[in-house]
TrEMBL record:
InterPro entries: MoCF_Sase_C, MOCOS_middle, Pyrv_Knase-like_insert_dom_sf. Residues 125-271 form the MOSC domain. Coiled coil: none annotated. Pfam families: MOSC, MOSC_N. This is MOSC domain-containing protein.
Length: 285
């Protein structure tokens, strides 16, 4: 079965609900519109769904001028893209940079949605944030994604993981949807875990480097429809996908082409690969 692009997902606000789209422009720092907005606390540090589970219930929708956001028990709210001439310091993991503040009204709306003080910021210039030099090139850049511009996952790997989840629970646990893993692109037609060995792939006319496996965190254990945390999929990943003290699902990508549009149904070709038996690319220990 030939490989193909099964779905495309972008996440306008980091850690909030994503959008499924039929096509997307590939920019150097990720898909157009993906994770350009982020919530920060009063000190400017990123707020993510790891600690603020309610973020997963916030539904942002990109507009020509900014965002429309919705959340349970709150009216929808329209946010304009802020003026980039005003900047505020923010930090995300090891990155320290500046972003444009969305303003007090947006901050008040998100603070109500999260039940804690929060400020919304916009990354007007993604060239400010470099990727990890250990797994990328000096000129590689990323928006407010955790570390790299895109995440790829495969339908076959999710099916293999769900087989384990269902078997371990004796059928009591339903298979998990791909939304638990928040990938940007999902590939159909591969063998399970084949992506571990990918080094360069082509999706339509866009070429990507596969630079690092994705170590999974507690966000995958939070039901995106209820914000309730459970043990899966980390419990089952720990049995079949544990290396170096972490569990792994999906692979981080860096674009080598920019300005190209990818579309659902595009042909996918593996340009360079190694045998996947050693697991994903990961830090040396």
């Amino acid at each position: 079965m030939p490989l193909s692009l099964a779905s495309i997902h972008r996440f306008p606000v980091k850690s909030c609900r994503g959008e499924s789209v039929d096509s997307a422009v590939v920019e150097p720092w990720g898909l157009a519109g993906d994770r350009r907005w982020m919530l920060v606390d009063e000190a400017g540090s990123a707020i993510t769904a790891r600690e603020a589970n309610q973020l997963l219930l916030v539904h942002p929708e990109l507009t020509a001028d900014g965002l429309i956001v919705a959340a349970p028990d709150l009216p929808p709210f329209t946010i304009s893209t802020p003026d980039p001439r005003t900047q505020t310091p923010v930090d995300l993991w090891k990155s320290e940079l500046t972003a444009a503040p969305a303003g007090p009204e947006a901050d008040a709306w998100f603070s109500k949605a999260l039940g804690q003080p929060a400020r919304l910021v916009y990354l007007d210039d993604p060239t400010r944030r470099a990727t990890s030099p250990e797994f990328s090139e000096p000129d590689d850049r990323v928006s407010f994604a955790d570390g790299y511009p895109l995440l790829v996952a495969t339908e076959a790997s999710l099916a293999a993981l769900n087989d384990v989840i269902v078997e371990r629970s004796a059928g009591a646990h339903a298979p998990l949807p791909m939304t638990r893993f928040r990938p940007n692109v999902v590939i159909a037609g591969s063998e399970a875990w084949a992506e571990d060995g990918w080094r360069r792939i082509r999706i339509g006319d866009a070429v990507f480097r596969a630079v690092k496996g994705c170590a999974r965190c507690v966000i995958t254990t939070i039901d995106p429809d209820t914000a309730v945390r459970e043990k899966e999929p980390i419990a089952s990943l720990a049995r079949i996908r544990r290396w170096d003290g972490a569990t792994w699902f999906g692979v981080n990508l860096v674009p080598d082409t920019a300005g190209v549009t990818i579309r659902v149904g595009d042909e996918v070709e593996v340009l360079d690969a190694v045998a996947p038996g050693a697991g994903p690319i990961r830090p040396a220990v």
